[in-house]
Amino acid sequence: MLPHERSLVKELKGRPFSIVGVNSDSKDRLKELVKDGTTIWRNFTNEQAGGKISTTWGVRGWPTLYLIDHNGVIKHKGLRGDRMEKAIKEMVAEAEASKSF
């Protein structure tokens, strides 16, 4: 999964798109993932599966993906692969058309 997300970050650079990770690993493990290039986006640590962020957002499994539009509205949850990429590109196009990002 991560190679796909890294390619999207590179492909959509400079456009209204970003990935924000909420990671259940320890802070030290998260630092390793960032340092070795596994994740190239901003990350927060939840430090355990039952942490505050995952509890508030109702995360039951890792990874759980939310696609949030330029207005802060959750548009999709749990998409993967081509369906996820299509939805992201549609949302980016909508944000660019609205010029409100």
Overall shape: it is globular
CATH top level? Alpha Beta
CATH topology: Glutaredoxin
Task: Give me the CATH superfamily.
Answer: Glutaredoxin
| Elements, N to C (H/E) | HEHEHEEH
**Mean pLDDT level:** 87
**Structural domain tally:** 1
Q: Compute the number of strand runs.
A: 4
The main sheet comes to: 2 strands, parallel
Q: Number of helical runs? A: 4
Low-confidence stretches: none
Roughly how many Å apart are the termini?
27 Å
Strand numbers in spatial order across the main sheet: 1-2
Strand percentage lies at 5-15%
Radius of gyration (CA) equals 14 Å
Share of residues in helices: 40-55%
Structural class: alpha+beta
- Per CATH, the architecture is 3-Layer(aba) Sandwich
Write structural notes for this entry.
This protein has 101 residues and is an alpha+beta fold. It has a single domain (2-96), classed as Glutaredoxin (3-Layer(aba) Sandwich), CATH 3.40.30. It has helices spanning 2-11, 27-35, 52-57, 81-98, and strands spanning 20-23, 42-45, 66-68, 74-77. The strands form two sheets. A two-stranded parallel ribbon has the order 1-2. It has a two-stranded antiparallel ribbon with strand order 3-4. β1 (20-23), α2 and β2 (42-45) form a beta-alpha-beta unit. InterPro entries: Thioredoxin-like_sf.
